[in-house]
UniProtKB/TrEMBL annotation:
This is FAM3C protein. The gene is Fam3c_0. Belongs to the FAM3 family. GO terms for molecular function: carbohydrate binding. Residues 99-186 form the ILEI/PANDER domain. InterPro entries: FAM3, ILEI/PANDER_dom, ILEI_FAM3C. Coiled coil: none annotated. It comes from the Eukaryota. Pfam families: ILEI. The keyword Disulfide bond applies. GO terms for cellular component: extracellular region.
Length: 224
């Protein structure tokens, strides 16, 4: 009887072990299958994810061009943003923007940033802005964006100097208009990179200010 009991116990143990091992293997197979399926889905997602281009622009720039993206300020709340070659030159986060006209200078041959400044065209003086514009060296890329109001203190001399950088809208820039522009010192033609929205109480997105203007593109590298 003892031997028979032992055989039964061993048989139950073996049967239990077999059942457990079968269930475990099934679970292992299911888990492995789930892992492989997830890996395949992740790979597919990665392959269908659109590529990211410099400054987040919509397409890659050709060789010997610099990618840029910029936006004017939003009312008097959010400052403008200027990015060149994936380098954010000016933004509210960097805390280097201000009311008026925000300017970033970039080397036209290398794409390296040279300077960033803002000039208060509401409560400030236009004279330092004029001196700054006159000091820009030939071959420099010049990017400008308004914040709050960029026009009240602008005079004819300042507007003429900006027009010489390739701007066509600067002559019509008015109180609280939104404007972004990319040109160059020594440019021989009008710049194709300019956006301007008039301050109009009937169409303004924000009370007292028009909507933000954004612009992106590829700036040709200056050739010797």
């Amino acid at each position: 009887i003892g031997a028979a009991k032992l055989v039964v116990v061993v048989a139950i143990f073996l049967l239990t072990f077999y059942v457990i091992s079968q269930v475990f293997e099934i679970k292992m197979e299911a888990n492995l299958g789930h892992i492989f399926a997830r890996s395949a889905l992740d790979a597919a997602a990665r392959s269908t994810k659109p590529p990211r281009y410099k400054c987040g622009i919509s397409k890659a720039c050709p060789e010997k061009h610099f990618a840029f993206k910029m936006a004017s300020g939003a009312a008097n709340v959010v400052g403008p943003k200027i990015c060149v070659e994936d380098n954010v030159l000016m933004s509210g986060v960097k805390n280097n923007v201000g009311r008026g006209i925000n300017v970033a200078l970039v080397n036209g041959k290398t794409g390296e940033p040279l300077d960033t400044k803002f000039f208060d065209m509401w409560g400030g003086d236009v004279a330092p802005f004029i001196e700054f514009l006159k000091s820009i060296q030939d071959g420099t890329i010049v990017l400008m964006g308004t914040y709050d109001d960029g026009a009240t203190k602008l005079n004819e001399e300042a507007r003429k100097l900006i027009a010489e950088l390739g701007s066509t809208s600067i002559t019509n820039l008015g109180f609280r208009d939104n404007w972004v522009f990319c040109g160059g010192k020594g440019i021989k033609t009008k710049s194709p990179f300019e956006q301007h929205i008039k301050n109009n109480k009937d169409t303004n997105k924000y009370e007292g200010w028009p909507e933000v203007v954004e612009m992106e593109g590829c700036i040709p590298q200056k050739q010797d």
